[in-house]
Amino acid sequence: MIYSGKALSVDVLPSGIANLVFDLEDSSVNKFDQETLGELQEAVAVLQKADVLGLVVSSAKKTFIVGADITEFTSKFAEGKQQIYIWLVEVNKIFSDLEDLPFPTVAAINGIALGGGFELAISADYRVATESAIVGFPEVKLGILPGFGGTVRLPRLIGADNANQWISSGSHIKAKQAFSEGALDAIVNEDILIEAAESIIQQCINGKLDYTKIRVQKTSPLTLTPIEMNVVFETAKGMVASAAGPNYPAPITAVMAMQEAAVMDRAGALEVEHQGFIKLAATEVAANLVQMFLNDQFLGGLAKKQQAAARPISMAAVLGAGIMGGGIAYQSALKGTAIIMKDIAQEGLDLGLAEARKQLNKQVAKGRIDGNKMFNILSNIDPTLSYDGIDKADIVLEAVVENPKIKQVVLAELESLVREDTIIATNTSTISVDGLATVLKRPENFCGMHFFNPVPVMPLVEVIRGEKSSDETVATTVAYAKKMGKIPIVVNNCPGFLVNRILFPYFGAFSRLINDGANYKQIDRAMERFGWPMGPAYLLDVIGLDTAVHAQAVMAAGFERMKLDIDTVIDRLFEQKDLGQKSGSGFYLYEQDKRGKPKKLPNPVTEQLAASMASTSKEFEDEEIVQRMMVAMCMETIRCLEDGIVSTAIEADMGLVLGIGFPPFRGGALRYVDSLGLSQFCEIADKYADLGELYQPTTKLRDMASANENFYS
Ligand SMILES: NC(=O)c1ccc[n+]([C@@H]2O[C@H](COP(=O)([O-])OP(=O)(O)OC[C@H]3O[C@@H](n4cnc5c(N)ncnc54)[C@H](O)[C@@H]3O)[C@@H](O)[C@H]2O)c1
Fold first, then answer.
1. Is the CB of residue 36 below 6 angstroms from any atom belonging to ligand 1?
2. Does 713 have pLDDT greater than 90?
3. pLDDT higher than 90, residue 596
4. What region does 598 belong to: left with phi over 0, alpha with psi -120 to 50, or beta?
5. pLDDT digits over 368-378, tens only?
6. Is the model's pTM score more than 0.90?
7. Is the CB of 401 under 6 A from ligand 1?
8. From the CB of 581, is ligand 1 less than 6 Å away?
9. Residues 504/555, Cβ–Cβ less than 8 Å
10. Atom 6, ligand 1: which residue's CA is nearest?
11. pLDDT by residue (tens digit) across 604-651?
12. Residue 322: CB within 6 Å of ligand 1?
């Protein structure tokens, strides 16, 4: 052993080749935290003087190196530009020193090598990997660019075209693709990974491979002509800018850094990368996206705790094979839990199965599963019109029509047929879980499990704890959601639960704006510019105006402040049976495009209707539109937190991001309020106090503002 630390060690193999092994103490994965980087620096210093024939870099964990330690980013980025610069120079010196070692070097990649992990790998001369290896640079997803030489070495290794694509998309790249594009030199079986790496070094020693040539290539300017360079980078910039949009500056900054550095040697190119990194690290977008990552980890950890008391689920059932029931059955079967799908109508079953088949065909077309697997998944769904076999189900999801009376009848009947320990969960989107529980003999076995439409796509599941739901019921439902590949957030019962309770005040603000003379197309544009994937009018069309009218009535019955004392366009469209996307017209008109997807077109009739229903005519600035919409949404999020509907700001914000597409780069409603500053937010809200209680700050919020607090501190 010539070096031994807590994160890595260096030994000399019998072949005379050194082996640097990453094995971070007390951690399931290797990552570049400060301590690991410090040890790497020491190990490289030892290697510079070591009498060895070459170096193999490998991992003793199940995967290689997952990347930098993102939990250190928030404090690191807060240190300021000067400190970040010093850090970057220091770390990059380690990677460059490794690249310059006086003997050939090979990275032996088992499993994941992302971000800093792959930057280390491309600092070596060669890379040999297992077939399971996943490589790439996901930094742009955190609002930054690769900072340990990724933008410098990758284009010099695999060409500017590929590098632009890899880095600006942040994609995970499978071993096969990485090999075909030249980022990996060989793919071998795991059991001969180290031997394969040693054999590459032997070939260098024997003169069969010239590793010095690769070093020259990686440390020199790109070998493109000025014309080629222009074509490659200008095309990439155009594509990246339109894909990422104006709110995500990282992808375009990365491409521009690679373009600027293309004519430079390693030192110059690294300097360009540092500057790009520093610029991005200082943005609020990066801070919010890093926080999103941390939130995700937080939810993962929380779910682990929440499902500790879970009972095993080997068989499930769903009542109602409609849009939701069909999606739930598909998702359960896909992830390996067999499911009975019961409906009262054969057409329902046919529809549910057709939905599952459609989803599976998509998976087959994408090459994710083969026909055999599709057959197996489909045979995991048992469509039936009878309750036969329901006693085998460990959990039954109720997804019949949204009508409290029908649901109560169905639930009571169901309870008399299932086992005493079977959990029953309702997928209602609005009806009180406690109200439904009143018809049950075992309300402790009952809770809500609210999926979002379309089930296979939407990651969030709200698990609603009723007053009488047992911990075991909640734990088991959380575990089932996780097993289905979803992200569960446990919330307490109230009308609309978390997400719809917050969404409807936002729609209320929308209706009020129209009533005050705002043009709904302008509202959509303003909110889309703010970062929403779709504006509120478009979103209402997608949800369906019938659903919106129904849910609004439930919310208004539950909360006085959500009553709307105005005649709304939503109601009028519903009365006219213009239900949005599903009927072909609503706020917009819809026709099918060539691929059969609904295409949105203007609807002059609704525009006229909206204008005629306005009680005043006023020109609105986008800023006022955004403020009115966001104040209503943020205030209700704050109330949900104050009322204990969710326990933490993170859960509230993640519910909005995962459930309704709140712009991730803004980090969620509470994070957005934090970014404005609580006092500033109260000042904005106060401008709209006349519009009603929805817009008025709570006493607690004002207290927090005076105490200079925020939600994420
Ligand atoms: N559609 C959405 O966007 C959405 C989103 C979240 C939650 N939900 C909720 O999911 C539930 C189902 O909604 P959907 O959109 O799938 O409705 P849907 O109308 O598409 O399907 C309901 C199905 O239930 C069947 N059904 C009716 N009574 C039944 C009974 N006694 N036993 C078995 N099946 C019965 C119907 O035949 C129909 O196939 C509702 O509670 C709804 O609020 C819907």
1. no
2. no
3. no
4. beta
5. 899 899 999 99
6. yes
7. yes
8. no
9. yes
10. 452
11. 999 999 999 999 989 999 999 999 999 999 999 999 999 999 999 999
12. yes
Q: Six-digit token pair at 616?
A: 């005043």
Q: Reduce the DSSP state of residue 233 to 3 states and report it.
A: helix
- The average confidence (pLDDT) of the chain is 96
216-263: per-residue pLDDT in tens?
999 999 999 999 999 999 999 999 999 999 999 999 999 999 999 999
Q: Whose CA is nearest to atom 27 of ligand 1?
A: 400
Best residue for ligand 1 mutational test, from 319, 331, 341, 343 (most atoms within 8 Å of Cβ): 343
- Pocket residue to mutate for ligand 1, from 318, 350, 401, most atoms within 8 A of Cβ: 401
User: Is 101 in a helix, a strand, or coil?
Assistant: coil
- For ligand 1, the distance from its centroid to the CA atom of residue 454, given in whole angstroms, is 13
Model pLDDT, residue 515: 97
Question: Separation of 487 CA from ligand 1 center, angstroms?
Answer: 22
Of 398, 400, 464, 501, the residue with max ligand 1 atoms within 8 A of its CB, to mutate for a pocket test, comes to 400
Calculate the dihedral angle through the C-alpha atoms of 115, 117, 119, 121, rounding to the nearest 10 degrees: -150
Measured from the Cβ of residue 311, the count of other Cβ atoms closer than 10 Å reads 15
Sign, Cα dihedral of 372, 327, 655, 138: positive
Q: How many angstroms is it from 138 CA to the middle of ligand 1?
A: 39
Of 215, 13, 51, nearest in space to 125 by CA: 215
Rounded Cα gap, residues 244 and 57, in angstroms: 35
**Distance between CA atoms of residues 235 and 243, nearest Å:** 12
DSSP character for 423? E
To the nearest 10 degrees (0 to 180), the angle between helices 323-334 and 371-378 is 120
Give the residue numbers annotated as catalytic, written as ranges: 450
- Whose tokens are 């980890």? That residue is 297
**Phi and psi dihedrals of 424, rounded to 5?**
-115, 130
The closest residue, in CA terms, to atom 12 on ligand 1 is: 399
pLDDT digits (tens, 9 = 90+) for 384-402: 999 999 999 999 999 999 9
Residue 189 CB contacts under 8 Å (≥ 6 apart), including other chains: 130, 131
Tokens of 106: 């090979």
Residue among 578, 572, 584 at smallest CA distance from 610 = 572
| CA dihedral of residues 512, 517, 521, 522 (deg, nearest 10) | -100
CA distance 301 to 193: 33
The partner residues of 136 in beta bridges, in order of sequence, read 114, 172
Indicate the pLDDT class of residue 202, thresholds 50, 70 and 90: very high
Q: Does the beta carbon of 410 lie inside 6 Å of ligand 1?
A: yes
* Contact (CB, 8 A) for 586 and 603: yes
Using the mean position of ligand 1's atoms as its centre, give its distance from the Cα of residue 555 in Å.
Answer: 19
Nearest to 470 by CA among 504, 507, 424, 513: 424
Whether residue 87 is predicted with pLDDT greater than 90 in this model: the reply is yes
Q: In the prediction, which pLDDT does 184 show?
A: 98
pLDDT exceeds 90 at position 359 = no
Ligand 1 atom at minimum distance from 352 CA: 39
Which one, of 600, 295, 579, lies nearest residue 460 by Cα? Answer: 295
Q: 319 CA distance to ligand 1 centroid (A)?
A: 8
**For the CA of 544, the nearest atom of ligand 1:** 3
Q: Of 696, 688, 595, whose CA–CA distance to 638 is shortest?
A: 696
Mean pLDDT for the stretch of residues 303-308 = 95
